[in-house]
């Protein structure tokens, strides 16, 4: 079952398309990250899925319900983390979480247990009596996730996690999301421009640019679809020349390969030629490198269709 889905989803603000014909599905229990640069449409996607707006055309669904028309039914089954979300300034962190637990009808004894668990898990228990203005950006981000997970939602929607977080906060958020995915069975849609961070959490990805979903899939399928090649990397004895076709980069002799199946033959050739081989690894491109390859490919296609002066055939 698809817990999250979008079909030809389009949202226009003031004549400008923030999303254009987006199609995606996240199976129940899955974790998908939609990544892109600023202005790609990530926040708009989360807001539509959270029922904080309605699409101009197309449709989206969460747990089989329309967020724009059935948000009240979805409220208790989803948790949303937005950059714009705020805690109440007049209350401590503990009081804020107690309040939001009540809003989500979590019984008092269960709320106390759940809040304690989340604050300890996120390593912000000692911050519980502080008001929001006394908390760092990283602690506020962790508190936002605690708020979203208070009522054990089935679906979690997150926008721009990774921004402004210190290393400890990023690790705590990543660890808790991993726990919630494994042990509590949540479905996660994460939208972020911090691609390496998103890659450390999710298993499938959508590449957003200017409101268009360029591609979606696993890192490996996106790599193959974007024509981004692997690299063989050999570390040799100091001063030794690398095999033919290899270039020295960052202490390794490197060469692009189509598949890691080429590695045994490359290693055998290096050893057979008398090379002192200390290490051989396959370097895989990061999600950010793959994303930028898709952008470059898109620019090349635009140049082909339109030409440098715009007089070529029109797509």
Describe the protein in words.
- With 315 residues, the chain is an alpha/beta fold.
- The chain is 35% helix and 27% strand.
- It is built from ten helices and 13 strands.
- It has helices at residues 42-49, 71-74, 93-103, 108-121, 137-149, 167-183, 195-199, 219-225, 263-272, 287-306; strands at 2-13, 16-27, 31-35, 57-62, 78-81, 155-159, 187-192, 204-209, 212-217, 230-236, 247-249, 252-257, 277-283.
- The model is unreliable at 300-315 (pLDDT under 50).
With strands numbered from the N-terminus, the spatial order across the biggest sheet is 5-6-7-3-8-9
Can you say what the CATH homologous superfamily of the largest domain is? P-loop containing nucleotide triphosphate hydrolases
Question: What best-fitting shape do the alpha-carbon axes yield?
Answer: globular
Main sheet: strands, sense, barrel: 6 strands, mixed
Tally of DSSP β-strands? 13
CATH class descriptor of the largest domain: Alpha Beta
Low-confidence region ranges:
300-315
Tell me the fraction of residues in β-strands, as a range: 25-35%
Query: Which structural class do the helices and strands define?
Result: alpha/beta
Shape-level CATH architecture of the largest domain:
3-Layer(aba) Sandwich
The N- and C-terminal alpha carbons lie at a distance of 36 Å
Number of helices: 10
Domains (count): 2
Estimate the mean pLDDT confidence.
Answer: 90
Q: What is the string of SSEs from the N terminus onward?
A: EEEHEHEHHHEHEHEEHEEEHEH
- The share of residues in helices is 25-40%
Rounded to an integer in angstroms, the radius of gyration calculated over CA atoms is 23 Å
CATH topology of the largest domain: Rossmann fold
């Amino acid at each position: 079952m698809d817990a999250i889905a979008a079909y030809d989803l389009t949202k226009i603000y003031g004549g400008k398309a923030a999303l254009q014909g987006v199609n995606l599905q996240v199976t129940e229990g899955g974790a998908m990250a939609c990544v892109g640069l600023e202005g790609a449409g990530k926040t708009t996607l989360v807001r539509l899925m959270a029922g904080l707006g309605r699409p101009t055309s197309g449709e989206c669904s969460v747990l089989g319900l329309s967020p724009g028309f059935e948000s009240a039914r979805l409220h208790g089954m989803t948790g949303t983390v937005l950059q714009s979300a705020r805690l109440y300034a007049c209350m401590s962190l503990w009081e804020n979480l107690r309040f939001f637990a009540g809003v989500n009808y979590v019984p008092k004894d269960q709320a106390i247990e759940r809040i304690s668990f989340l604050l300890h898990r996120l390593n912000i228990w000692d911050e519980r009596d502080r008001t929001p203005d006394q908390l760092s950006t990283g602690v506020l981000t962790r508190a936002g996730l605690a708020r979203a997970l208070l009522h054990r939602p089935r679906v979690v929607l997150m926008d721009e996690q990774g921004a402004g977080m210190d290393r400890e906060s990023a690790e705590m958020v990543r660890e808790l999301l991993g726990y919630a995915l494994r042990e509590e069975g949540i479905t996660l849609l994460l939208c972020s421009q911090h691609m390496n961070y998103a890659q450390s959490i999710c298993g499938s990805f959508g590449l957003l640019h200017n409101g268009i979903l360029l591609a979606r899939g696993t890192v490996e399928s996106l790599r193959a679809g974007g024509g981004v090649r692997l690299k063989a990397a050999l570390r040799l004895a100091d001063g030794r020349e690398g095999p033919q076709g290899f270039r020295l980069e960052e202490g390794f002799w490197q060469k692009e390969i189509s598949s890691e199946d080429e590695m045994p033959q490359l290693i055998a050739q290096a050893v057979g030629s008398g090379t002192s081989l200390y290490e051989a690894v396959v370097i895989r491109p990061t999600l950010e490198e793959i994303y930028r390859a898709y952008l470059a490919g898109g620019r090349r296609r635009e140049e082909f269709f339109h030409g440098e002066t715009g007089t070529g055939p029109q797509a």
